[in-house]
Amino acid sequence: MVNTSKTRTDRKRKAGHVNFQAGEIAFIEDEMEALAAEYGLEVDGDVATHVQQRKQKKKIRRHRVRSSSKSISTVSEHKTSRNLKSSATFVKLLDVRPNENAHDDHEDEHKIVLRRLIAVLPDTCALRACGVPGCSCVNGSRSLGLRQHDNELDKIHTIDVIENAQCLKCQHGVLQHSVVLREDVDPIAAVPSGGQRLLQMLFQLIRLGRIGASIFKSRVWIQSAVERLDIVLVHLKRLYATGGTQNGQTSASELRQERQLLSELQIQLRKAEQALRTASRDGLPILLACICDRMYFQTYYSALVLYGRACGAVPAPEVYLKDLDQFTPDSTLQLEKFLNREMLGSDVPSRLIQSLALPVASSSLPDELARERLRAAQHETDNPLLAIYHSRLRDGVRLFYEEGVGMDGEMDAAVVAPKGSDLATSKKVKGNKKPQKKHYRRERNSGSRTGGDAKEALSSALVEMPSYPLLSEWRNNCRDWCCHLYAYATPTKEALDVMAKYTPIVEVGAGTGYWSSLLLRADVDVVAYDKAPPNAEGAEGNAYHGRVPPFCSVACGGPEVLSQKNMAKHTLFLCYPPPGDAMAVRSVQLFQGDVILHVGEWQGDTGDSRFESELQRRFELEKEITLPNWGNSAYGLTVWRRKSKDIEPIAWRAMSCFHCDKTLKDAAAAGEPLRRCVVCKTNVYCSSTCAQQDAVGHAAEHASRLVFLKDPTSSTAYDRMFESSAFYRELREPNLDNTVMAVKSNWNALVKSETAVQGNEKNTTEESADEDSEEEEEDSHDKTQAAKITTKSAFAFNFGA
């Protein structure tokens, strides 16, 4: 009888009832579940079950289509899951985070909840009025307990104490009670006027907003954090408007940095208020997480510049993100399921998961597992940037994959319309630039590059990988500040071990010296140089790292140091050389040694075509190491040795067909140039047939970047996609003609030449005021300049905004 009743209910839902169709019922149930979660109310068990089932079906349906796309045929879900189980090796991740939810079963519930609240709320704040409509409770945290759940869905996930806590007076959750200033705190004393106490208070309020928005999803806590932040910022604005602070600080740089921080936080606060009014339910936690993280990084940067790394007012990013992880105990398990479902299989290369450098359990013995956890924890301590990367990976899977965000064709719409966004950027740049005189434009085109070089520079300009707005916001949130505070590429133990074999090492363009500091810690002989070390005195600091204190000693110098006699036996290390800059190619020209270590993209946003051609003209590839990449990057470590008769070059995986291993040279000889995917900027194919045969592995690469595209349904569709520049772009062959570029060892002449060109460009921009009537020449020039401006602005960073 039970089965019959269930069947009738399912039929009734599918057919629709009370004039509602199944899709409309699903929408209503989703809204009910969202409102119940927002106000801490109990939702009907059937509704909760249906919502959870739809989320799982969305992921299963996408996975089933991806697995069957290779043969362009439809297979049953049972058959697909059976094949996956038989062909894939299960990955078991190590969770090196401590369990913060552990407590004694006999301990008083009120004390358990109160201790957890103390760890979350700012020092000067407490719970007060209930935010549920119609509830007049102002009991706050005076009497708290733990809710008893009978719902089976609540037993599936590990629930944090705060999510399970409730007020014993009104029976509503603590997440529905507003966060206000404590009654025993003086309102005036609660708002510091500057210094480390100010930064600490700002951090605590930002942290509260981040936890309430992206983890507990409590609109009441978010609103409370926004209101408290607004009070602090209004007070500071009024204080600075009257001439400064009253706490005895006399440093002009400190006051200037705090004013810049105030301006930035006000901008982000307005964005948060707008997001609360306009963002969708699925997108709101992600958008607010990005806003809160930006506010945190701006606060941390101010603390770093003013007080150094020893300042404890604002914790370092790896500590901040690890602290957030304690409130998501299921995130490691969710990442593990994601890897086993999306990135494992007979058609998925094992290097894909290996490149993530995740701590994987290799034993089932308790003692060995304990030792592996200790080693993994030590690696995270030694390499904080990798620890940040793993935290972001877990966060991305939790916010996007588990919630089904981006699986309804958002990415498909973003990929097929990149030209519109480029056109908008071009118009924006054109409108903001002053018109230039005709003869100045001619000088600029002929003075900077000649002939095809200008066209080549335009084609290789830095272009953002396509993505829909929410994913793009998340990618920038994950990567940008990590690049500026640490390094533009994330090192791994494997990469550092390979580099250690080529000691002694000289790094040019070291930035913060993060990679060099890890090598020094491993007792590798390395010296780092940068033409503008981040700690150098000056108004602007380093263009890419601001005034971030370096991780090791970084001397002032550029490629010219490579011509010194004591550098003849060193290995050259170039980590993410700036795009469109001559630093990389001149380093290769002046380098006297035999081995070059390069970390960056190829035909991407590092170096330029001159550097790539010069490197391949003089050196042979010896080794290639994959590195963990952010969602919008595709870099790796390559080892190059100077050409000689004894050197045997190896196949270059990143520049060969991912299915048939056809090289760039062989493909050009066959009249089938290699084309690289625009979405991931990683997978390369020589034909649509190879792309179709490697569809499963390609989709796994996309999944690692939280990209979920709808698969083509026919071979013809694959052909159209492969030929479309929206999905694939042709790779260029290197120019290996020795007569094209002469080696210049006179660094002063090179610097003077570049300075003269830049000076002409600057004068051109400042003096240009006349309108030009020749539309064709103006449009052509504007496109070139837009590409150059996009390249610089996207790579550099404005720390003083």
UniProtKB/TrEMBL annotation:
Keywords: Coiled coil. InterPro entries: SAM-dependent_MTases_sf (IPR029063). The keyword Coiled coil applies. Residues 52-79, 422-455, 754-787 are annotated as: Disordered. Residues 767-779 have a biased composition (Acidic residues). CDD domains: AdoMet_MTases. Residues 255-282 form a coiled coil. The keyword Magnesium does not apply. Residues 52-67, 427-442 have a biased composition (Basic residues). This is MYND-type domain-containing protein.
